[in-house]
Design goal:
The protein is mainly alpha-helical. It is built from 18 helices and five strands. It has a five-stranded parallel β-sheet with strand order 3-2-1-4-5, sandwiched between helices. Helix 1 links the parallel strand 1 and strand 2. Helix 12 crosses helix 13. The longest helix has 23 residues. The protein starts with a strand and ends in a 20-residue tail after the last helix. The structure holds flavin-adenine dinucleotide. Flavin-adenine dinucleotide binds next to helix 8, helix 10, helix 13 and helix 15.
Amino acid sequence: MNFKRIIVWFRNDLRTRDQEALYKACQTGAEVIPVYCFDPRHFEATVLGFPKTGNYRTKFLLESIQDLRKNLQDLGGNLVLLRGKPELEVITFAERIGADAIFFSEEVTAEERNVDKPLEKAAWSKGIATESFWQSTLYHIDDLPFPVAQIPEVFTQFRKSVEKMAAVHSTYPQPSSINFPSKDLIPLEGTLPDITTYGLEEPEAEHRSVMQFDGGESAGLRRIQSYFWEEDRLKFYKETRNGLIGSDYSSKFSAWLALGCISPRTVYEEVKRYEKERKKNQSTYWLVFELIWRDYFRFICKKHGNQVFHIGGIKHQEDSWRRDNADFQRWCEGQTGVPFVDANMRELKYSGFMSNRGRQNVASFLVNDLGIDWTWGASYFESQLIDYDVCSNWGNWMYVGGVGNDPRENRYFNILRQGKNYDRNGDYVRLWIPELSKLNGFGIHHPWDLSTAELKSAGVILGATYPQAMVDLEGVY
Ligand SMILES: Cc1cc2nc3c(=O)[nH]c(=O)nc-3n(C[C@H](O)[C@H](O)[C@H](O)COP(=O)(O)OP(=O)(O)OC[C@H]3O[C@@H](n4cnc5c(N)ncnc54)[C@H](O)[C@@H]3O)c2cc1C
């Protein structure tokens, strides 16, 4: 088709490199108008009382949009900012400027599909063409060795098949320039909202945070540069990835991947370059292995649709969950009285991030020890995580909640044993729970087993300075 004026509608693909929609639009020679639309539904309150998008992620999103606008401007373009429901606003804007096509990324989950389907329909009724592109995974959906309906339910089968039978495409280059229309057509590009527009406060700087996460493609690429090349951490990734403290135990790419500021294929190409230029080992393989987990959850969501958000999950299990608000609040606030859980939940609350090890433990504690509705936990993570990704989050929660496709029946994490394996001296707990910081060694993980004298000398009174544990974990490690 010969288009004259194409809107590239950005969603969770906030980048200029390996951005097929943008690249292909520029290749046509048409005028290209990049657009982002702030959807008020993303910032509504949930039924549980917290905002759907909390302040860490909102800040990261705003920074990412700002960076995208700057990168597009450097290419001679711009980013038009709209506010409202994209299925209405993007269409109204397209009509106003006489666009004849809208290019965008394909999404897989319900809320996103409930936007792009009506958008496509409205565009069609007005004679505007639409083209969607699959852009968020390492392996392209068209390259999978099976149709979506037959995607293996078990991760290992999925991984082995794609590793053996599919290839990773090379990345699309950044367009050399953008043919952006004149000011007469687009006099106002729209201003960036402030975080307070959404009733949120700017998050306070937290010195204990694993690192500072700045939103945007530029910062994402800098993180790849620093983690792989300057700090040279990739070759140790497999040994350090279960860490809890600091910036370098794992890549921390997740927030940039979630909003599409960097693509998994860009990461993959850098891994391959690192393997050639520095070292190829189990660790370099393992980072790609983790990216395949990310792919897997996206394809499982594509296959199972709305079931991934249902209480019974894709196993259609019976609903036997507790819905105790007070207990749930204690979990959210990091006041369960179980130090390893509380340290992780406070890290999430005060920094917007939590390690993979932490996520598995706190999720298991909520569902297995407290028996609380797993979808509540997933919703809280959705609000709070700076790297929230709909498929990775709900997919992992289904897994831990035992309603996903885990071949193991019961993925129970023994919190104290985990604490012993991953935080033997209690440094992580000490970092996030200052009221226990004077307790020595591993004792900090199980204050209920300590003598009154030991507690007293550390200034701890259980039930007063730190909560009594919500569950009985005595002697089980
Ligand atoms: C209950 C629960 C909820 C989670 N919610 C999210 C979420 O909303 N967003 C998110 O990106 N990840 C989520 N994860 C997966 C994982 O914890 C994070 O991706 C990881 O901790 C991010 O840190 P990193 O970038 O340093 O990871 P690294 O260890 O450096 O891994 C590299 C990349 O691989 C991917 N990855 C790693 N582990 C997983 C995994 N288990 N599932 C899917 N992708 C993975 C991520 O994109 C990550 O950036 C969740 C895990 C659990 C157990």
